[in-house]
Amino acid sequence: MDYHSDRFFDYSLLIFKGKKLVAILPANIKDNIIFSHQGLTFGGIISNKKMTMSLMMMIFQELKAYFKDNGIDKVIYKAIPHIYHSFPAEEDLYALIRYNAKLIRRDVSSTINMNERIPYSRNKKRNIKDTKTSGLTIRKSMNFEDFMDIEEKRLAEKYGVKPAHTKEEIKLLASRFPDQIKLFTLENNKEILGGVIIFESKNVAHGQYQAANDEGLKSGGTDLIFDFLINNYYKDKKYFDFGISTENNGLYLNEGLIHYKEQFGARSVVHDFYEWEI
User: Whole-structure pTM over 0.90, yes or no?
Assistant: First the structure.
């Protein structure tokens, strides 16, 4: 997280039982409010296989006392969607409710269970078949700069926003985590028409960014990239996740965007946010 440490006042916690570390909570603080963590897509308590329900209840009891002693007003807690767990680990969700936390936001992500695939829609199959004859190529690339130029332009045109990462930040992160952050580009005679940046974890290949220029959109090339990733490069992953299709803190559903993902056989997984008054 240090690449953007200047944006957040860190308040991450190590949680011990006796002398043994049993959990960590990535967090930052702003105006006496704890966030878990504003600089991370997912937050919440991270633990190992030894976590139990009773231990999690004890952790929340101690967290509440600690926060109260340190003048914290509330906690905004971002839960980790279950597809990112290595094993069942939702003890924190039960503890949150027991300590009167309230669900304040729910985003919707679109995910393919790679072991129980839902077939592509008929239109998606036809589009991909047609695009495969276009002569376009897909390759793994390190040209993050040219791709992020396309991404920035598309986001500005469609939504009037900027990517969460600058091109310099994504290049830095990819250089530090080459096995987890990968760019796949769509090219015509070595000219980049678009691409997809994947953030890869143990069970999930997550599409963090996807974009194409006018020529790439016209050719339907993004379909070609996703088809390659789903059926070839990441065929052995447990989940392929397209990311969220919600805006305005989860209150607006981009129906066109989620329909695009559902045509690949993706279905909904929620990402929940809780407010815990201390």
Answer: yes
CATH of the domain at 64: 3.40.630.30
Exposure string over 134-159, b if 16+ CB within 10 A, otherwise e: eebebeebebbeebbebbbebbeeee
- Give me the domain span that covers residue 94: 2-108+273-277
Geometric angle at alpha carbon 230, from 165 and 223, rounded to 5°: 75
| Residues 12-70: tens digit of each pLDDT | 999 999 999 999 999 999 999 999 988 888 889 999 999 999 999 999 999 999 999 99
Clarify whether residues 168 and 212 are in a common domain.
yes
- Do residues 121 and 220 share a domain? yes
For residues 129 and 30, membership in a common domain is answered with no
| 126 shares its domain with 230 | yes
